[in-house]
Amino acid sequence: MKILYFAWLRERMNKGQEDVAPPEAVTTIDQLIDWKAANDEGFALAFEDRAIIRASIDDELVDHDAPIANAREIAFFPPMTGG
Amino acid sequence: MKILYFAWLRERMNKGQEDVAPPEAVTTIDQLIDWKAANDEGFALAFEDRAIIRASIDDELVDHDAPIANAREIAFFPPMTGG
Amino acid sequence: MWVRIQREPFDPGAESNAFFATDGAAGATVTFTGLVRSTPDKPIDALILEHHPTMAKKQIERFATEAMEKFELVDIAVIHRFGEMKVGEVIVQVMAASPHRQAAFDGANYVMDWLKTDAPFWKQEVTSDGAKWVEHRKADDDAKNKWNTETPPKSV
Amino acid sequence: MWVRIQREPFDPGAESNAFFATDGAAGATVTFTGLVRSTPDKPIDALILEHHPTMAKKQIERFATEAMEKFELVDIAVIHRFGEMKVGEVIVQVMAASPHRQAAFDGANYVMDWLKTDAPFWKQEVTSDGAKWVEHRKADDDAKNKWNTETPPKSV
């Protein structure tokens, strides 16, 4: 699946997107963050304040306990400041 | 003092304004209406449904019990329908 | 704060742009635009607005001033027409500018609610049957009451 | 109902006029216009908006559709820019048309409140010190809660 990063999360990750292939045991957004953080120091640092980070699956906002099965694209980003 | 009539009140009165000189005993809008109605059949008819008629003294909306002393111009009109 | 009462039609978008140029720096602007409406089940040919000139100006200026004080507005402007207007023409436009969007919404809304019930304008709808006075709507009285203004904007 | 997300500046008054021409027959139109603000105590040179293109369009379309259903609207339209914009340029414009003025106010207000917190845009303020991400405001979360939407507009 593809992960997108936006705003300061993109800056901290130093990339706007990447392809990942988490193991089957990783079934939720939270577990995806855990798994990435364990394998990627930059990610762990960028997601330090995890509670404020928002996520979407295939263009739909989701909570961190949302299942990621069948997700094509997962996006992570700071709270929105549009309008 | 001058009395102004607007909208269907003007049409029923068949005039937009007139000058009146009520006796000293006439001290409120209500008494002015009573006095005019007693002396003017057209006015009595036009003001039949008196409760819905609104009044202003010198460009300020007033209740029917407002004192008319020092009034230069009194306006009578139906409920407003602007905007 | 300014109020214009005029017979001539005006360009609503051009008025908004002029207002933005002056007060857009505030950040948020809310514009209410009321147009002459004709519906299939109640078609009209035109609208004729009668008004009490001096009092209309004074009342709308009062509501606009109150809105400036009540909400955190940088500016508010009102244009209201009188006379005859065709379907699709603008009757009234209220523009409110603020650093805070809710204040801009509330300012324009407040002025419209009070204007509807307490500004001396009277509408006639013109149809093939002639001109007919529009009746005051009870809903308009209810609308202004939502502001809980303890001292209604009238003196004496 | 339509939503446009674009990089190019647009003329807010011309957009309003086009909207009136299509939907003005409804009677009441409320337009919210948000402009790039620079204040003396917090001057900025420009604003840069980053966005998630597909999700931004989808989310705003959802809020606009919900507004159509929730209030008695004839139409609602949203234009939101991304990329770099200068002080005084328009960031966002929402236009809501209804036979009832309160519905038009509520429709535009509702879309703005949800858009602020749940549409994927992120602002950077550009000053002589460089570009700095704007922080999300708690007040914006509170604003959307006033609608008492039991099911927040997100799925899953």
Task: Give the rounded overall mean pLDDT of chain A.
Answer: 97
Number of domains of chain C: 1
CATH homology superfamily of chain A: Beta-grasp domain
Strand content of chain A: 15-25%
Q: Roughly how many Å is the radius of gyration of chain A?
A: 12 Å
CATH topology of chain A: Ubiquitin-like (UB roll)
Number of helices of chain A: 3
Shape-level CATH architecture of chain C: Alpha-Beta Complex
In brief:
The complex is a heterotetramer, with two copies of chain A (83 residues) and two copies of chain C (156 residues). Helix content of chain A is 29%, strand content 23%.
Can you walk through the features of this model?
The complex is a heterotetramer, with two copies of chain A (83 residues) and two copies of chain C (156 residues). Chain A is an alpha+beta fold. In chain A, 29% of the residues lie in helices and 23% in strands. A five-stranded mixed beta sheet of chain A has the order 2-1-5-3-4. The N and C termini of chain A lie far apart (30 Å). Chain C has four helices and eight strands. The longest helix of chain C is centred in the middle third of the chain and has 18 residues, at 53-70. Chain C is globular and about 50 Å long. The chains are: A alpha+beta (83), C alpha+beta (156). Chain C binds chain D through residues 11-17, 20-21, 24-35, 37-39, 87-88, 90, 99, 101-102, 104-105, 108-109, 112, 143, and chain D through 11-17, 20-21, 24-35, 37-39, 87-88, 90, 99, 101-102, 104-105, 108-109, 112, 143. Strand 2 (28-35) of chain C pairs antiparallel with strand 2 of chain D, so a sheet runs across the interface.
